[in-house]
User: Which sequence fits this backbone?
């Protein structure tokens, strides 16, 4: 029996491209191609986050909902730990026992952060109506962290104690990271795929009447992508364990690169991009909806008030009181996230504050109902 952890076939020969790319070092510099192609997209995404950091900080300070800060923190944590793994793997000698152990521990650590984020996002999406407090979010993060910890400990134990011979390099006598072996990889990927497909079916089964399901299409597209990814990964691991090994290794190489390189940007794009972006068409539509509403007689302001309040600065568009522009998640069933009153008052521009004061002066209906003689 060749495979200790679920594989009955001889190891993949080193001359196959899909295995060669996993351990080939550029000019014997310890910089492996596999680490480099994972490092590049993560580094570009960090650069993107840094460029937009100031705008993101202002938006986070202007909302009282902790869910956005949670997502943003998870995104930063994932991409930083991925960069650390790539950097350390490029400096240690994986062919040495200590270097190989460090490399595997870092892989398992990255998997822990990504899996915890993956489960947290799903729970937040399905139960957002009950998760808009710091305590509930903390409980979800603790629960998902414990589940992810159990998963990664199992994966790490299998990886260190019973490495899969499919990922053994005979010429250098060391083992690549095999994700816990093909049997474990196949079983876990298939389980996650089933869970995601069940979530996709929830809006079409009678159980939907008892659940406050998300209404945003982007949430279900996110779930569909993960379901397809896990299904493809299960097929590749199954081919490695019980079928054509070379094609199976190519399949899991692609799915692994997609998950460890593009999953974190996917979370950002699905759940944070709309919140952090200042979309002028959305703002104009919001204002247009307000202007199209009929005005009552007692709401008509004086001419000087009307012209003065019509002046808008850039901060008015960023810190407007309406939360419908950016204070809603893409999986929210309905309603909006409340604005923090402290930041609502402190982050307004001087024009908007003066405008608000002028409206309050002319606010009481008794003042407008009085008959003022014309001069």
Assistant:
């Amino acid at each position: 029996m060749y495979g200790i952890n679920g594989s009955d076939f001889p190891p993949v020969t080193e001359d196959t491209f899909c295995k060669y790319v996993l351990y080939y070092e550029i000019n014997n510099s310890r910089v492996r191609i596999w680490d480099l192609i994972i490092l590049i997209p993560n580094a570009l995404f960090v650069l993107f986050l840094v460029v937009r950091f100031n705008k993101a900080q202002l938006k986070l300070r202007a909302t009282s909902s902790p869910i956005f800060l949670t997502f943003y923190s998870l995104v930063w944590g994932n991409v930083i730990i991925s960069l650390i793994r790539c950097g350390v793997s490029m400096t240690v000698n994986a062919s040495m026992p200590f270097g190989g152990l460090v490399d595997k521990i870092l892989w398992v650590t990255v998997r822990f952060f990504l899996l915890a984020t993956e489960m947290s996002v799903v729970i937040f999406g399905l139960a957002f109506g009950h998760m808009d407090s710091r305590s509930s979010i903390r409980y979800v993060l603790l629960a998902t962290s414990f589940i992810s910890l159990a998963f990664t400990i199992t994966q790490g134990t299998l990886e260190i104690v019973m490495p899969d011979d499919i990922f053994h390099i005979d010429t250098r006598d060391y083992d690549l990271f095999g994700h816990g072996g093909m049997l474990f990889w196949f079983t876990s990927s298939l389980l996650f795929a089933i869970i995601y497909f069940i979530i996709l079916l929830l809006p079409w089964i009678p159980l939907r009447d008892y659940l406050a399901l998300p209404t945003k299409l982007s949430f279900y597209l996110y779930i569909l992508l993960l379901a397809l990814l896990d299904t493809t990964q299960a097929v590749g691991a199954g081919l490695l364990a019980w079928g054509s090994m070379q094609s199976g290794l190519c399949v899991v190489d692609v799915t692994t690169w997609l998950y460890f390189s593009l999953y974190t940007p996917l979370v950002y794009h699905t759940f944070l991009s709309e919140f952090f972006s200042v979309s002028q068409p959305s703002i104009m539509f919001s204002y247009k909806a307000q202007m199209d509403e009929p005005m009552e007689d007692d709401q008509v302001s004086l001419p000087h008030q009307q012209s003065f309040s019509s002046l808008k600065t850039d901060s008015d568009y960023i810190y407007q009181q309406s939360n419908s522009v950016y204070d809603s998640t893409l999986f929210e069933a309905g309603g909006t996230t409340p604005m923090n009153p402290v930041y609502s008052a402190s982050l307004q521009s001087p024009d908007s504050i003066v405008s608000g004061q002028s409206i309050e002066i002319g606010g009481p209906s008794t003042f407008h109902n009085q008959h003022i003689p014309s001069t």
